[in-house]
Amino acid sequence: MSWGIAVTRSLPRCGVVETLTISVDVRERRSGLPARPAELGLDVETVTLAVGDYAIGDRVIERKTITDLHRSLAHGLLWSQVGALRRDRRRAYLLVEGRDLDAGPLPVRAVRGALLKVVDNGVSLLRTTSPLDSAVWMDVLARQEGARRRGRPEARRLRQRRLVVSPVGVVASIPGIGLETATLLIATFGSIRAVAAASEDELQTVSGIGPEKAKALHLALAPEAVVDPDRPSVSPAQAGETLR
Q: CA-CA distance, 232 to 234, in Å (whole number)?
């Protein structure tokens, strides 16, 4: 069991105060970083921390100074820590703090290769220049976590990325209709609506379309399934409804 320090931020929501906690492992006290959040208006309290050096909601962070990074790599300790981060169900980060990544005994390419391997293992990399810079990153992560929990529109927009629906892509997604045939259909009729409005005989004038495929096109491109050409951009949920 390790004791830690927690940094809390009060987040108003219609008069209700929501508290986010940045949990800091006790071994980080000597780094000077736990004192930095106070400069950003954050409070501190003691908690128990199990994985990583910091935890912010659903995010867990392992912090390394450049010296720590070189030492951990030289002794093989980093990979056990990365393994613990991977087993944890929260979003994992490795925060590397310091201006000169090569201020240590390991070869230049070895350090960079190790960091790439960390990223390949599903752990995001954060590079900071100083303890204060690291504290600012913690503050930003806390704000984003707070926005996510409150379900702000801007947070939802980050999760719901916009799609540009390609007419060819929509037609090509119909079983039995490949990309080449879909391209010919759109080139011949001009739009998804026109393809949907065409008779089965008209559809069969396009190379690669026989009676069965013509019928499949009519079934798939029912009026309610056609994408409005004046609205080429839809959300993922809307796209799913359109293609059902």
A: 7
Radius of gyration, CA atoms only, the chain: 27
Residue 221 DSSP SS3: coil
Largest distance between two CA atoms of the chain: 79
Q: Does the structural domain 2-159 have CATH classification 2.60.40.10?
A: no
In angstroms, how far is CA 51 from the centroid of its own chain? 21
Q: For 79-102, how does the pLDDT look when each residue is reduced to its tens digit (9 = 90+)?
A: 999 999 988 888 999 999 999 999
CATH no. for 163-243: 1.10.150.20
Contact 10, 17 (CB under 8 A): yes
Q: What is the mean pLDDT of residues 35-56?
A: 67
Whole-number Å distance between alpha carbons of 105 and 181: 59
End-to-end CA distance of the chain: 51
Which residue stretches of 1-152 are H helix? 36-39, 66-74, 77-87, 108-120, 131-150
101 alpha carbon, distance to own chain's centre: 26
**Closest by alpha carbon to 236, among 165, 179, 171?**
165
E strand or H helix at 48: strand 43-49
Length in residues, the chain: 244
The pTM score is 0.54
Q: CA of 197: how far to CAs of 23, 98, 134, 141, 190, in Å?
A: 60, 63, 59, 51, 11
Q: What are the sequence ranges of the domains in the chain?
A: 2-159, 163-243
Helix, strand, coil: what percent of the chain each, to 5? 50, 25, 30
3 state DSSP class of 161: coil
